[in-house]
Write a structure and sequence with these properties.
- The chain is globular and about 75 Å long.
- With 438 residues, the chain is mainly beta.
- The protein contains six helices and 24 strands.
- It comes from Maribacter flavus.
- InterPro entries: DUF4249.
- This is DUF4249 domain-containing protein.
- Pfam families: DUF4249.
Amino acid sequence: MIKSKRIYLYCFFIGLLAVCCTEEVDLGLENNAGVLDILVVEATITNEFKNHRVNLSRMDTILDTQIDSTFNPFTPERDIDRDLVKYERNARVSVENAIGTAYNFDEISPGIYESVEPFAAVEGQSYTLKILTADGKTYTSEPMVIEGFLDVDQLYAERMTNDDGEEGIGIFIDNGQGSGSVNNLRFSYNETYKIVAPFWDESDFKLSNYDPCALPVPTYELEIVPRETEQQVCYGNQVSNSIILAENNTVNSTGFNRYMIRFLDQDDFMISHRYSIEVTQMVTGSESFGFYEKLRNFSQSGNVFSQVQPGFIEGNITSANGDRDRVIGFFDVVSVSKERIFFDYMDFFPDRDLPPYVFNCLEQSTNESHVSYCFTGMQGPNPCPQSIIEQVNLGLISYAGPNTEDIGPCPSEYIYVPRICGDCTVLGSNVKPDFWVD
């Protein structure tokens, strides 16, 4: 099933971690406007030649404390994650190296800044992040350098039972000889998975000339037409939302074997068909490692927000007056090594049915039309669900076939399902990724 209702009292995003509290605690933030103005910075520059990104936002209370993240087939979709972030707009962002070369960043979407030109961090060169916000305040990081290099030798998956007795698939890495200081490692991953809509039909509803307020009855044209776009097979994507750290304490700069990056339960929807994961290994410094370790521990405490105060987690970025408590974040310069693998569910569980779909799909039917929105006469109770044309107009349902068995409390000639069951684009993209291998 999709996630259940969550209650957010306070939330900020940094790195790949969304730090959220779901307990009702008195933060006293409404009386401390300064805390709410703290700038949150996510910035990591790597040795990859690419357009790098810097993310800026503000610490904030969430005004909507009853946000429902459950998929609701009766309401249009909402991008909850983006709604929860107070993005920092119209800032000027740059990264400068020790010899005076500046790489400028443009805001490509709210709070997300991307370098105008691609570049790569170079070994032995220091880099500094500089930010000028729209309100005229400046922030500068300490100069940072690449600490060392360590390649991932192998990324692989194994069927296993974890410490909680759950059966599933573990994602492991091995790595080998490195150079420089490779004692501190941070990991992230990017998952891509195939989605197959279980109630896809080659035809779908097409509604036109719809006037719900027409009298004496609504006017419309409802057709069953061939689908014009791919909506049966899609590809979902999810990035890691936790901080994964490892200390490499072996001698001679060697790496370690069989380090588990990810565990996937055997009933995880993402591995239902074909699944891919790309793991990024970052070699960081001790200061960066300490910052992310504190942030990870902070996020795992049950009562952390009773302890929130400026300067609780100190990074390497300061405001112009030298205060570190007006900004939370860390500017990191790292070397990276990446590996990707693919597998099918049947590779590991040939004796099991596929994991359940993310939504309990039921075929339904109801009246095709409805009472005019502008009807002013007496109306009795309506035992029928929302009409088909209303749901089609809101993009809530997909055509599933003719209603030959009188399904539904108010059956019409059509069967439908929630759109998530018949249209995979609700959950992912219908464009196959360039890297995808079937």
